[in-house]
Amino acid sequence: MPTLTTTSKGGRPRKSDVEAKSLHIIETASRLFAQQGYAATSVEQVVAACGVGKDTVYRRFPSKLALFEGVVEHARTQTVAHFQTTMATQTGDALSQLRAAARWLLTANLDPTLIAFKRIAFSEAIVVGQAVASRTDDPIMDRLLSLITDAQKAGALARGDARFLAAQLLSSIAMGPMIDAMLGGTTYASPRAQTAYFDKAWTLFIEGAGR
How do residues 22-47 score in pLDDT, each as one tens digit? Predict the structure, then answer.
């Protein structure tokens, strides 16, 4: 297998090559963790699947937990980037953009790889829970809060605690389908099923359950 790393004139690996190798390790580990779970995946399996030396992996990730933390952080970065790219194309008022963000959240929370990582987080909570919960910054939630606040100022949403409304939006839009998928269900697997569910959930969120 050809090496992913070349050297500069000084004999040291180029930064881009080092980053490429780290990404290769992360992507390989992501696939194995998603397919097999945390307990059944070993660093040795990742080493073999990557085709790199064991020392190469351990220099970057000194333990399996550190490797999983890297996998979670990579998934988080990709998810945030995809959300920002999606929202950059949205136009219209704050409520229209909030609707687009909510629709994206439903699809994102049903992504098979993210579902697999969430299963790991629940089943291995004591071991890997900190890896999932360690980050406190949340650009996606920040954007939701901003859109909800703007929609409230425009009179499109009732006044109230924006963070509470954001939590209720997430719960009504994404929580049920996500749990269904984590339990192995396929109720919301198709885009058509997701859209049908989303339209009902969004209407309920906007109108409320009162008469």
Answer: 999 999 999 999 999 999 999 999 99
